[in-house]
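Ops channel
N.P.: pipeline sanity check, posting one input/output pair.
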């Protein structure tokens, strides 16, 4: 059964399926480290391994959406089996007995638990408000009203002058002073899209689905014009080249 080591990590042996639907389970030593936000597994207890031997597998707890006992239909010939759902993958693991199974499922669900504040949520702290505040150089910048249009798949922001006209004084009729390509538009030529305005804030939040009302962790990014979300931070980091922004509902 799992035990807690001196570093307050939950440890123990489990059998993990080598590849999904392969039916081949391998004995591995697991460490659930909530401080490092990850689940690691080794060939054996690290104390018995050679110096420098690393983990053979790892899974960030942030990616786990659900841990549940496997149904007989999923694994009919594997008793005490449970499944970890993480992003688009499933990890099937086999415990030693029923108590071992229950302890691991509860520990993993608790470690990856998503909590949503009730009653409208908690008030925003002063530190959060300060972090969202614009830099001093931007605060001194006069506010300008913009008209937003979509022309040929490109988002166009046109300044509206004080006299009610579009664009700057002296500009030709119909010209646009500012053209900014939306990051949700990926050029077909394969060239790199514009990075757009600097980020105001980014990080993990929980989002309720539009159709299925379940809550899931997503990585959010906020700039001056848009807020978008991704499955994980790695997807966000590569989004400028080959990932389309998802519309926020």
């Amino acid at each position: 059964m799992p035990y807690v080591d001196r570093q307050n990590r939950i440890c123990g042996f489990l059998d993990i399926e080598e590849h999904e639907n392969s039916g081949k389970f391998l004995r591995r030593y697991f460490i659930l480290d909530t401080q490092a936000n990850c689940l690691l597994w080794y060939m054996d207890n690290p104390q018995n391994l050679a110096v420098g031997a690393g983990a053979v597998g790892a899974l960030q707890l942030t990616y786990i959406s659900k841990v549940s006992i496997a149904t007989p239909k999923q694994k009919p010939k594997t008793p005490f089996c449970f499944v970890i759902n993480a992003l688009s993958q499933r990890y099937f693991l086999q415990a030693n007995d029923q108590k071992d199974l229950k302890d691991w499922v509860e520990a993993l669900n608790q470690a990856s638990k998503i909590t949503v504040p009730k009653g409208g949520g908690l008030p925003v702290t002063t530190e959060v408000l300060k972090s969202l505040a614009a830099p001093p150089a931007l605060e001194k910048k006069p506010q300008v009203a913009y008209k937003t249009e979509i022309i040929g798949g490109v988002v166009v922001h046109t300044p509206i002058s004080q006299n009610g006209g579009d664009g700057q004084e002296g500009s030709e009729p119909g010209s646009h002073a500012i053209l900014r390509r939306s990051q949700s538009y990926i050029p077909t030529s394969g060239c790199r899209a514009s990075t757009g305005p600097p980020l105001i804030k980014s990080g993990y939040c929980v989002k309720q689905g539009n159709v299925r009302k379940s809550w899931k962790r997503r990585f959010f990014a906020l700039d001056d014009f848009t807020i978008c979300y991704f499955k994980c931070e790695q997807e966000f980091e590569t989004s400028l080249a080959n990932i389309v922004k998802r519309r926020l509902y």
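N.P.: looks fine end to end. The helical segments are 98-111, 126-132, 136-139, 233-237, 239-242.
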